[in-house]
Design brief:
The protein has 773 residues and is α/β, with parallel strands linked by helices. It contains 32 helices and 21 strands. Bound molecules: adenosine-5'-triphosphate and magnesium ion. ATP binds at residues 27-34.
């Protein structure tokens, strides 16, 4: 078992074997920080530390699962099972289920996701009669979120003249009231939003010393990954919990701090040595993830930032190919280039889709990439954006289930009380809401007591409301004995939600029905998973918690092989052999919204550093000369970040001679092609956009005239027509060979060739550089 220690280099061993007490590992990307954390946990356990006494906080639940799996391999799964590992939110949600009652929350509290919070705020703004163009609910939500993450309660808000003045200046003098109403309504609904999970944990630990002491004694060893991105609220929790034993191990990289817009505070890293005594400080310098060209290019970028800790990152990996830069006339062409390039790599090197990731600055960029991948039949998965669980039909079913668990859940109730339609209109809902606010009760409770209040609701509607309550109660009774799957299936049918979409009959409706089936499948999996762990009934409440806190990466079961599409923010900590960073354009990346101060620009640069360092073997940077943004075609300039990379590590793929026809010819990216057609150019700032390359309209015309030109393919190979089974050929890289088989047509025509050197390879003819002998 001790062997696993030898899977570490000397610099990594030191923090893994560090004795008790605080320690911090600050190191660049890919140097093994996460590995150190994982192995340290295994090491602690092998030295007799009880898994129950270890708490590990990660950036995604997926990362936690992977770490747990590795630890299981080392120390055995029965022990590893008892480790508390997960994101801050998921770990502290569990803790609040136990002790939240001290703050007045039911143990079955609902977790409001961002959408729920925004809907509630929007309702409050409306009820208060405020101008929704001034009090924009998304902005209001952001502000409240940042207050909470800085531990500014409503009371603290009113005591802070700066905040009051800032909101008054921003013509939002009633922010405080909105904040108060929002907090009250969440509380009354037995709900916590994401920020509450941290804020209330802090409150619990400060107000109840016995609770603090309980968890201090339980979590004797605390380990935090991606420490550079913890916010103030998270920082305080970690500080409080580790205060007694001081066995705190944090790992991070200031150069990868990319969440300051959500309150992440890099000073948490910088102050660590002040916060604890006798801090063990460790540095890792060797990168194991990426080729030398990638590591060096990344170093050359981050060197442009002024505010950073001194750090060395080197690798003994091979040089690898250059960072490839590609320019397209339009975003659609950029998508086609990326899809084409992935296709070629897959064909030539027989790689699975999971080896590829396309990273972008904003979610909306995914569309062009998706279109192109679909045309090539390359399966992909988008992470982020509107998640599965936020789709309307899924949220409808989940809302019924949420009500079963917590009938006070106002957002759930409002969603489905009249879906499917049962004649309970908006005016009835308005009356119920007013009454609920007046009596300080939930809407559900008001409905339960309709007979006792005079609400001017006619008897027909009263009966319908009564039926609704009876239905939910019948589900609650069923929930006492049935497992989560049986209950959910019953709910989906009995409420009429499934039927509603079935009746609809449109492809859209059918799609929604299928999504609900998919949800039920998911619940079934969950039930079976729970059964393997314990005999206990798989509880729907637990499933709902998983769903509410699932980061998008968590749904990735790894079962199916797909290209990953995600924002750079989400890609933190991950690695892929091939990475395409798309939309490398000024105003997009760096984002136009983040260029007004040096700090903002430096954060964008760190984001770029994160993007590039996800790549193991090969990185592509692509940009378009024109792009559709907000429905308009705009000209774009190459990102300054491309220029910042040391030229030595860059190869420009944009062929100069055929500039005019760039969109029609994909450049060979395997170097088989005649190099004289390429010129190493560094993209110039201010290159006149699409100067002599065709715009979308011209392209469309061209395609009409000559349809085969419009297909985004590589160079049509001139030898192709002469090739037949038995032909003798010469390949620039593989040498002489004989064609044994030809299959496919058009762009997909492939030849199986037995080369004299002994290999048999299947090559895509339009890319293969073959000479017929
Ligand atoms: N000593 C080692 N020997 C072999 N492979 C290693 C070693 N250390 C780390 N690796 C591998 O290098 C890769 C990067 O490691 P890891 O993800 O732990 O780095 P990191 O510092 O956490 O990166 P990031 O900053 O991106 O989060 C992983 O694939 C890991 O398994
Ligand atoms: Mg890591």
């Amino acid at each position: 078992m001790e062997n696993y220690i030898n899977e570490l280099n000397e610099a990594q061993k030191a923090p893994v074997l560090h004795k008790d007490g605080p320690l911090m590992v600050i190191a660049g990307a890919g140097s093994g920080k996460t590995r150190v954390l994982t192995y340290r946990i295994a090491y602690l356990m092998s030295k007799g530390v009880d898994a129950f006494n270890i708490l590990s906080l990660t950036f995604t639940n997926k990362a936690a699962r992977e770490m747990k799996k590795r630890i299981s391999d080392i120390v055995g799964s029965s022990e590893a099972k008892n480790l508390m590992m997960g994101t801050f939110h998921s770990v502290f949600a569990k803790l609040l289920r136990f002790d939240g009652d001290k703050l007045g929350y039911p143990s079955n509290f609902t977790i409001y996701d961002t959408q729920d919070s925004q809907r509630l705020l929007s309702a409050i703004i409306k009820e208060m009669g405020l101008d929704k163009d001034i009090y924009k609910y998304k902005q209001v939500q952001n502000r409240i979120s940042s207050y909470k993450n800085s531990l500014i309660t409503v009371k603290a808000y009113y005591n802070n003249p700066d905040l009051l003045e800032a909101d008054a200046m921003a013509k939002k003098p009633r922010m405080g009231e909105i904040y108060q109403n929002y907090v009250d309504r969440c509380f009354k609904a037995g709900a916590m939003d994401f920020d509450d999970l941290l804020l209330r944990t802090n409150e619990l630990l400060t107000r109840f010393p016995e609770v603090l002491s309980k968890y201090q004694n339980r979590f004797r060893y605390i380990l935090v990954d991606e420490y550079q991105d913890t916010n103030h609220s998270q920082y305080l929790i970690v500080k409080a919990l580790s205060d007694k034993f001081q066995n705190i191990c944090v790992v991070g990289d200031d150069a990868q701090s990319i969440y300051s817009f959500r309150g992440a505070n890099i000073s948490n890293i910088l102050n660590f040595q002040k916060d604890y005594d006798n801090v063990g400080m460790y540095r890792l310098e060797q990168n194991y993830r990426s080729t030398r060209n990638i590591v060096n290019a990344a170093n050359s970028i981050i060197a442009n930032n002024k505010n950073q800790l001194e750090k060395v990152v080197w690798t003994s990996n091979e040089d690898g190919p250059m960072i490839k830069v590609h320019q397209s006339p339009t975003d659609a062409e950029e998508g086609r280039f990326v899809a084409g390039s992935i296709f070629e790599h897959k064909m030539q090197e027989q790689l699975p889709n999971g080896n590829f990731a396309v990273l972008y600055r904003t979610n909306s960029q995914s569309r062009a990439i998706e279109d192109a991948l679909r045309k090539r039949d390359i399966p992909y998965r988008i992470y982020g954006g509107l998640s599965f669980y936020q789709r309307k039909e899924i949220k409808d079913v989940l809302s019924y289930l949420r009500l079963v668990i917590n009938p006070k859940d106002e957002e759930a109730l409002k969603r489905i009380i009249n879906f499917p339609a049962r004649g309970i209109g908006q005016s009835t809902m308005d009356k119920l809401t007013v009454a609920a606010n007046h009596y300080n009760r939930s809407i559900f409770e008001v409905i339960e007591n309709l007979d006792r209040i005079d609400l001017k609701i006619n008897s027909g509607t009263k009966r319908k409301l009564g039926d609704f309550v009876t239905m939910i109660k019948s589900f609650q009774i069923m929930n006492e004995s049935a497992d989560a799957f049986v209950l959910s299936e019953h709910v989906a049918k009995k409420t009429g939600v499934l039927l509603e979409f079935k009746k609809d009959g449109t492809p859209e409706g059918i799609g929604k029905m299928e999504n609900i089936e998919e949800l039920l499948n998911g619940i079934k999996d969950f039930v079976e998973g729970q059964r393997e762990l314990a005999d206990a009934k798989a509880d729907i409440g637990e499933f709902l918690e998983d769903v509410a806190l699932a980061t998008d990466l968590d749904k990735d079961t790894g079962d199916d092989d797909r290209v990953a599409l995600m924002t750079i923010h989400l890609a933190k900590g991950l690695e892929f052999p091939y990475v395409y960073v798309v939309g490398m354009e000024e105003d997009l990346f760096p984002s136009a919204m983040s260029m007004s101060t040096r700090n903002e620009l430096e954060e964008e640069r760190r984001l770029f550093y994160v993007a590039l360092t996800r790549a193991e073997k090969q990185a592509y940077l692509t940009f378009a000369q024109t792009r559709y943004r907000w429905g308009k075609l705009v000209d774009a300039e190459p990102s300054r970040f491309i220029e910042e990379i040391d030229e030595k590590y860059i190869e420009n793929l944009t062929p100069i001679k055929s500039h005019r026809y760039t969109p029609l010819i994909d450049v060979d990216i395997f170097g088989d092609m005649d190099k004289s057609r390429l010129r190493q150019i560094k993209p110039m700032k201010g290159t006149p956009p699409s100067g002599n390359s065709p715009n979308e309209n011209q392209l469309r015309k061209l395609r009409k005239l000559k349809p085969e030109l419009g297909v985004p393919v590589g160079n049509t190979n001139s030898v192709d027509p002469n090739l037949s089974e038995g032909s003798l050929v010469n390949h620039t890289r593989f040498g002489r060979g004989q064609v044994i088989k030809i299959e496919g047509v058009g762009n997909d025509k492939k030849a199986e060739i037995k080369f004299d050197k002994g290999d048999i390879k299947k090559l895509l003819l339009r890319f293969a550089k073959l000479e017929v002998l």
